[in-house]
Specification:
The protein is of the alpha+beta class and about 200 residues long. Helices cover about 15% and strands about 35% of the residues.
Length: about 200
């Protein structure tokens, strides 16, 4: 399985990092070794103490597809979740400044938190899902999928032009404004439409 991540999919996040608004979705991949195992902590890596959280709505692919039309994209997933793309921000900025790929800042071991999966049928409209991230009981990110530049089905259409989607693949659909650093002993809790999707401690 593979993890396909979408960058710069919320205008608010683009503005807070002073990035340029893209004409097309920005994509990057994470390996399966980036996934934090169930009930495990997030360990701040030895190579950077400056790690940012980025909460995102996730989609799990349930069938093989290539060149998927947007109108048929809904047939390719039936589970939704919430997760965190942990980012070594200083390293990412240094690599971007040099025009180099920045996978090591995004795809390192333990950089992907995947929450509990919920049936898509549990939600009335996936294009209007409220989601939040709390750190130590304080809300730091609060948004709705209606604010995406590209909706979930549009992302599946775009991604499948370049990558064959396979059963079990996971799409991270982008983060809204409010990203920031984590510190040792922080407790991060994510909610999707009021449902607790994950809770994780920073070590």
């Amino acid at each position: 399985m593979k993890i396909i991540c979408v960058g710069r999919n919320y205008t608010s996040h683009i503005e807070e990092l002073s990035n340029e608004k893209p004409r097309d979705p920005v994509l990057f991949l994470k390996p399966d070794t980036s996934i934090i195992q169930k009930n495990q902590h997030f360990f701040i890596p030895h190579f950077s103490s400056e790690i940012d959280y980025e909460v995102e709505v996730l989609v799990k692919i349930n069938r093989i597809g290539k060149h998927i039309q947007t109108k048929f994209a809904h047939k390719y997933y039936d589970e939704i979740s919430l997760g965190i793309d942990f980012t070594a921000r200083k390293i990412q900025n240094q690599l971007k400044d040099k025009g180099l790929p920045w996978e090591i800042s995004k795809s390192f071991d333990g950089s992907s938190l995947i929450g509990d999966w919920f049936s898509r049928k549990d939600f009335r409209d996936i294009n209007s899902l409220n989601f939040t991230l709390e750190i130590n009981k304080h809300v730091v990110q609060d948004s709705n999928t209606s604010k995406m530049l590209w909706k979930i089905d549009e992302l599946i259409n775009y991604i499948s032009q370049y990558f064959t989607l396979k059963i079990g693949d996971i799409i991270f659909t982008g983060t809204p404004a409010g990203v920031g650093p984590v510190s040792e002993n922080d407790i991060l809790v994510g909610h999707l439409e009021g449902r607790k999707a994950f809770s994780i401690k920073i070590k």
